[in-house]
User: What shape does this take?
Amino acid sequence: DQQVKQNSPSLSVQEGRISILNCDYTNSMFDYFLWYKKYPAEGPTFLISISSIKDKNEDGRFTVFLNKSAKHLSLHIVPSQPGDSAVYFCAARGSSGDKLTFGTGTRLAVRP
Amino acid sequence: DTAVSQTPKYLVTQMGNDKSIKCEQNLGHDTMYWYKQDSKKFLKIMFSYNNKELIINETVPNRFSPKSPDKAHLNLHINSLELGDSAVYFCASSSRGDQYFGPGTRLTVT
Assistant: This one.
């Protein structure tokens, strides 16, 4: 029963273009969403988050969009850089506690 | 000045052994976690402690016992290791929101 899904296991994008990573969730009790970036042999690094009271949050090149009615969120990276190549995990949390539920990740490759 | 640190980074051991993984955070966070990333790269929570008290236990076998001597440390002790325990174990900490992860401990049981 996977409550957070990232249906694209991989994505390849040209340097300078936009990368769009998608995430879907099924649990309507989730009210806080996060994106993490992970390099090989390192722990996930927090990137950006969004509360369910918002539909957009922006931080530099990274923007997260939330569509609550569709239970869908996306991470936009623009412009993409080779250093962005990593695995990106979407995570969600309910209001009842700290537990994060993760998606299975999307491997982003940014081509020079 | 690592925020969340874990030791060891790699651990290779035989079935049936008992081993511990240590975690420390210097962020002043109240809550700490253990996650397991299995061979399918799926990150799943195992335990959470808030101010040294267990608040989440996700039906993990009782061979796994977390210990929090203070709110900056959360150690994971595993008894009678099995082949299926091979995974990468991540420690994390948070304070009212975003969780920050350690570098992971790759456990290999042979």
Notes: Chain B has one domain: 4-109. The CA atoms of residues 49 and 55 of chain B lie 5 Å apart. The longest strand of chain B covers residues 43-50. The interface with chain A takes residues 4, 31, 33, 40-45, 48, 50, 55-56, 58, 90, 92, 94, 97-104 of chain B (CB under 8 Å).
